[in-house]
Amino acid sequence: MRYISRMGTPWTPLATPRESPAINSTPRYDVSEKNSKGLGDRIANFTKKTGIDKLVHSVVEDCGCEERQKKLNALFPGRNVAMDPDDVEAWELLQPSVERGRLNRVETRAMYDIYNRTFNANAKPCNCTGKNKAMVEKLERAYEYSCKV
């Protein structure tokens, strides 16, 4: 594939990392977060690896870490978020439209509702292609995670 630049000289586009077999790319998600359900789990993992949790537990028996961890996971969910069974069914019904790349208003509203319930968000429907594409990718990960659990 050759293109003509503004100066009138031909040039060949550079290969992107996905196209180039020489570049060893990493997966889109961080594999170290396999069991993480959100920010609370990541902080708990950090404090465990650094030894902060042992220090705190040697001073105080119950510091409220588990409750704080659950609240942070609910407020800031990570990549491994499971959908409710009802949302899984609704997402399966939307799959043909998503794969086709065309959602009508009702389907778009349903997708945003599933997203808001799953990720504890307050996203408003819009026609932004980039936002909707990112939302579909996150919902796909949540769907796959829900099917594994």
Q: Please, could you describe this protein's structure?
A:
With 149 residues, the chain is mostly helical. The chain has six helices and two strands; from the N terminus they run ββαααααα. Helix 1 packs across helix 3. The longest helix has 20 residues. Among the domains are: 39 residues, no CATH class; 64 residues, no CATH class.
- Total helix count? 6
Average pLDDT across residues?
77
Largest sheet: 2 strands, antiparallel
List the strand order in the largest sheet.
1-2
Low-confidence stretches: 20-32
**What is the radius of gyration computed over CA atoms, rounded to a whole number of angstroms?**
21 Å
Shape: elongated
Strand tally is 2
Amount of beta strand: under 5%
Helix content: 55-70%
* Helix-strand pattern: EEHHHHHH
User: What gap, in angstroms, lies between the N and C termini?
Assistant: 45 Å
Q: Class by helix and strand content?
A: mainly alpha
Annotation keywords:
149 residues; mainly alpha; two-stranded antiparallel ribbon
Q: Could you give a short description of this structure?
A:
This protein has helices spanning 39-50, 52-59, 65-75, 85-100, 105-119, 129-148, and strands at residues 3-4, 10-11. By secondary structure, it is mainly α. Helix 1 (39-50) crosses helix 3, helix 4 (85-100) packs across helix 5 (105-119) and helix 4 (85-100) packs across helix 6.
Task: Write the topology of this structure.
Elements lengths: L2 E2 L5 E2 L27 H12 L1 H8 L5 H11 L9 H16 L4 H15 L9 H20 L1
Helix pairs in contact: 1-3, 4-5, 4-6, 5-6
